[in-house]
Design brief:
The protein is built from 11 helices and 21 strands. It is of the alpha/beta class and 470 residues long. α3 crosses α7 (247-269) and α6 runs parallel beside α7 (247-269).
Length: 470
């Protein structure tokens, strides 16, 4: 398989345009000259050849919480089969170890700090995703894609921030985390159930997803399925309750596995297999303090709320028969924000020129190009606006920082360097042995501070864009 094998319709993706031209495309206005090839009278048959995209995004699922990633108790036959038919990405990252910033990064292709959504939003929040941001859904709509968001949104619950205002034709789900009150179930912009019956959510999401695929089988589509579970409180229907050896948490994951199997079977049955890229991953690591109701990130260190690997390295499986080599494993660094430019290239959509996009095109990794390397010089681990760590290649440097405990003076925690290839669990500090590596990673961190900022050093960053406000 060559890089060319997966480079579908990329001849039109080299052209770029700015936000003004982009909005003209969506509005169907007079910006005809700026239109990408996919809108210039392309026949319906050509449009159908554009790949479909399905992104299944779970909530708080740990690195180990699937059979193919080593779970000893949770049974995930459908995910295991998906991995056998596709690729496991073992070094796949999300841009934050909590909900809102992780979703912002996936849909904008940017670090959450760049779009000023670095922290979790709540039902009293008056901010959300800015109308000037271009989401992945908006990008794909310029090429005639049908789009839907089914599940947890969490980029603002007020009308200007809802999915239907940001490129999604339809929305069905809960606008924020399931432990927040009230907990409304929405269809488009209308509340249809409050509180939502969470025991049946995963199954209802699955029904909606299958309906969407069937209705749009003859045109390119983007299905974004950010599951509400396994975020606590855990809920599952009677048909799955008590089935897993891992208790209620395992029941929930096994229900999600069933859901994934239903979606994949629908794609197969409709003959869409060889034209559909499916990605399964999680928004961040497991909520370890929840004990048996939380997941496992083993063999990684830490979990949700941390910038250790267990907080931001997540399980990822990708499947596209004939394009992604079956049974393959990729250990190169990739990230959820890479989906934005990668899908743009695959769909033929044009990228914008008036903003920074942090994600990179990972088609060579997905297509199994021999010797393909990560396109990222570095990956930066943020917690809020605090830069806490940087990875480059196999090296991860946790930066020097101060830590304050209640009623105690702040104490300085020295920087630590880990070789993630030899020490995936971040147990052995090798900074004294590799001072030149430490120096280089500190230089990368300093470059990032200038770009995105670092609250601990009172560095605002020079390339942030504002969040939306009401």
């Amino acid at each position: 398989m060559t890089h060319r094998d997966i480079n579908m319709d990329s001849n039109s993706s080299g052209a770029r345009l700015n936000r003004r031209d982009f909005l003209g495309l969506l509005a169907g206005g007079a910006a005809t000259l700026a239109m990408p090839d996919c809108l210039l009278g392309a026949p319906a048959s050509a449009a159908r050849k554009r790949p479909n995209f399905v992104v299944i995004f779970t909530d708080d699922q740990g690195y180990q919480d699937a059979g193919c990633f080593g779970s000893p108790l949770i049974k995930t036959p459908h995910l295991d089969k998906m991995a056998a038919e596709g690729m496991k990405l073992t070094d796949f990252y999300v841009a934050a170890s909590v909900c809102t910033p992780s979703r912002a990064a996936l849909l904008t292709g940017c670090y959450a700090q760049r779009v000023s959504l670095p922290n979790v939003l709540f039902p009293n929040s008056k901010i959300g995703i800015n109308a000037d941001e271009v989401t992945l859904a908006e990008l794909l709509k310029t090429c005639g894609y049908a789009t839907v968001c089914i599940g947890k949104w969490h980029l603002g619950h007020l009308p200007p921030f809802l999915p239907t205002r940001h490129g999604f034709d339809h929305y069905f789900g809960i606008p924020y985390s399931n432990d927040m009150r009230p907990t409304p179930l929405m269809r488009d912009e209308k509340v249809i159930e409050e509180p939502a019956n969470q025991a049946t959510l995963t199954e209802r999401y699955t029904e909606e997803a299958i309906k969407f695929i069937i209705e749009n089988k003859d045109r390119p589509f983007f299905l974004y399925l950010p599951h509400t579970m396994p975020h606590v409180p855990l809920h599952v229907s009677e048909r799955f309750k008590g089935k897993s050896k891992r208790g209620l948490y395992g029941d929930v994951i096994e229900c999600i596995d069933w859901s994934t199997g239903q979606i994949l079977e629908t794609i197969r049955r409709l003959g869409l297999d060889r034209n559909t890229l499916v990605i399964f991953t999680s928004d961040n690591g497991p909520w370890l303090s929840k004990g048996k109701n939380g997941g496992s990130a083993l063999p990684l260190r830490g979990g949700k709320f941390t910038t250790y690997e267990g907080g931001m390295r997540v399980p990822c499986i990708v499947r596209w028969p004939g394009k992604i080599p079956a049974g393959s494993v990729c250990s190169e660094m990739a990230a959820s924000m890479d989906l934005f430019p990668t899908f743009a290239k695959l769909s033929g959509a044009r990228m914008l020129t008036d903003r920074i996009i942090d994600g990179k095109d990972i088609r060579p990794l997905l297509s199994g190009v021999k010797g393909a390397k990560t396109p990222h010089e570095a990956f930066f681990y943020y917690r809020g606006y605090n830069l806490e760590a940087v990875r480059s290649g196999k090296w991860k440097l946790i930066l020097e920082r101060s830590q304050r405990k209640k009623n105690q003076p702040a104490r300085k925690i020295p920087e630590t360097l880990y070789d993630l290839r030899a020490d995936i669990g971040e147990t052995k500090d090798v900074s004294a042995e590799y001072p030149q590596v430490v120096e280089r990673l500190n230089e990368l961190a300093e470059r990032c501070r200038k770009d995105l900022g670092d609250a601990r050093q009172n560095r605002p960053g020079r390339n942030r864009r504002p969040a939306g406000k009401v």
